[in-house]
Amino acid sequence: MAYILCIETSTTICSVALTCDGEVVAARQENEGNSHANRLTVLTEDLFKDSSVSIEMSDIDAVAVSSGPGSYTGLRIGVSTAKGICFALGKRLIAIPSLSVLAWPVIQDKANGEAEENSWYCPMIDARRMEVYAAMFDGRMQQQTDTSADIIDQESYRDILSERKIFFFGNGAEKCREALSHPNAVFPEDEGPLARNMAELANKAWNKNQFEDVAYFEPFYLKDFIATIPKKKIL
User: Fold this and answer.
1) 28-38 pLDDT, tens per residue?
2) 175 shares a domain with 61
3) How far, in Å, CA of 209 to CA of 44, rounded?
4) What are phi and psi of 95, to 5 degrees?
5) Domain limits at 163?
């Protein structure tokens, strides 16, 4: 029996979940924008106060964290918190790619039953302007393309769309809807990447002993961080 604390902070949603052998015991989430630094530890504390949780944080076996790509600040906060818990309690660290966390429930649901046997699934996390972090998965959750930062225009993914139906989802997909107008482009609703959707993925990693080096692990940012100065503060 493995209890795993899951942490997901790759987008504006901040979420945590406690899982046991791939099943969700309890979960908490908030979508308050840039509040991860203030809310992540509070949500984690509240999680272990849940009446359905019968263990202390010190009793967990591992911490699973969404590893990117996504929000630079969000990933940094999530991974730092996960590593801190692992260091303090002597626990294992599991990393789950953010796009896999986003794709998992949509693939399990077969995109509301609209999927075909050869359909692919494209989770998208908003980067900036018309850029997204994206990858393609098949119906068995096997990644078919490299994770990349794509600038979306009317020619994006046309070669793949000519061969199969693709489900685009995530907070990067909505802004791509018009540009990706094609009969094989489908935009199902999704919840965003949530910690509770890491349950089975984290459990599989645990069973395969797929752990990270707590001291040296870093998020997969994909792009370098670019600081911006608000226009009102330029002068």
Assistant:
1) 999 987 789 99
2) no
3) 24
4) -110, 130
5) 99-186
